[in-house]
Amino acid sequence: MLAEIVDMKDREIELKLQDEDISVMYIVQHELLKEKNVEFAGVVLKHPLVKDYLIRVVTKKKISTEAFQDACQSASENLRMLSNVIRDALKKYSA
Fold it and tell me: pLDDT tens for residues 43-87?
C-alpha cells in the first residue's frame, strides 16, 4: 500500500492511497463518521481500472490528522477483536 498526502490543513486532510482494496478505506470512513467532531469523511475511487483512492476528512474542532489516526487505530482494534471471535468459533467447530 502506498499513501500520499494530497492536501492538508488544520481541519481538513486528503490522502491518496494506492494498491489497496477499497473496503479498507470504507472501514476507516465508518470509524471516522462515528466521531462527533468529524464533519465529513468520504472515499472516492479515481478510476475503476487503477486502484487509486482518495479519502477526504473534514473535522469541526479536532485536528484532521489526529481524527484519521484515531479512526485507523479504532478500525485496527475492531478487526483484531473480530479475528479473535472467528478464531474461537473455528476452534469450537473443529473440536
Answer: 999 877 888 899 999 999 889 999 999 999 999 999 999 999 999
Quick check: helix, strand or coil at residue 15? strand
Please name the residue that has the C-alpha cell 466521531. Answer: 35
Q: Who's near 55: CB < 8 A, 6+ residues apart?
A: 14, 15, 17, 25, 28, 29, 41, 42, 43, 44
Name the domain count of the chain.
1
User: What does the pLDDT look like over 19-48, one tens digit per residue?
Assistant: 888 888 999 999 999 999 999 999 999 877
Amino acid identity of residue 3, one-letter, is A
The upper half-sphere exposure of residue 56, i.e. CA atoms within 13 Å in the direction of its Cβ, equals 9
Domain of 90? 2-94
Q: Does the predicted TM-score (pTM) go above 0.90?
A: no
Q: What CATH number does the domain containing 86 carry?
A: 3.30.1360.10
For the chain, the distance separating the N- and C-terminal CA atoms, rounded to the nearest angstrom, is: 37
